[in-house]
Amino acid sequence: MIQEKYNMKYAVAAVRGYMKRMGKAEEMDTAILNKPLCELTDGEQQELIALGEKAGMKLYHFKNSDRQLPRVSKVLGFLKGVCFDSLLDVGSGRGAFLMPFLDEFPYVQVRSIDILEKRIDLLSDLSNGGIDQLSVKSADLCDQPYSDKSVDVVTLLEVLEHIPDVEKAIRSAVNMARKYVVVTVPSKEDDNPEHIHLLTKEKLTAYFSACGVKKLSFDGVPGHLFMIAKVED
Predict the structure, then answer these.
(1) For the segment 141-159, what is each residue's pLDDT rounded down to a tens digit?
(2) Which of 27, 119, 149, 173 maximizes the CB count within 10 A of its CB?
(3) Where in the chain do CATH 3.40.50.150 domains reside?
(4) What is the CATH number of domain 70-230?
């Protein structure tokens, strides 16, 4: 059954957002286009998926899976133990963290930024298709796209190893966060040519200390270093 193949909430939201973005909304029933996601019938969901597949959408991003990345589970576990109302996820990519987070924290206002147009399109389709708690922006972290102390938590998950000016990126994150900056990075060298830094505990401590952040805690998950920076006074 198609409902077993996909995470329907995100798959149908993506289809509705895509159809709007591509100027194909007239091909859809107005009620299906605007109805809250939770009110869509099984038949309406199947109709939307069929439209997406016909349009050539890459819906494999939304396939159901019981597998959650260990580093994602680690971050979610930490966040379940603290109080916060807003989060900025930097470099959300295909949503490996973002979608599980939205499921676990349906009342948290979430901002997402990325610099890749295809990722922005995917995430914007979710937002415009009915994931109302999510807002998406094409932006570079190093340019500090939001004002100082504008969100409770900033997540930098598999991000810093890609950024040439790590110090500037960390300073921007610290400036924007009211409570925490959460980081995951690879813990050992790999063959990914896009990974231009290996950020150790010592290097991250030095970067965050230079931004005035002294309260850091570290842990590990397979192949990755996990860090929490407490930035509140």
Answers:
(1) 999 999 999 999 999 999 9
(2) 173
(3) 70-230
(4) 3.40.50.150
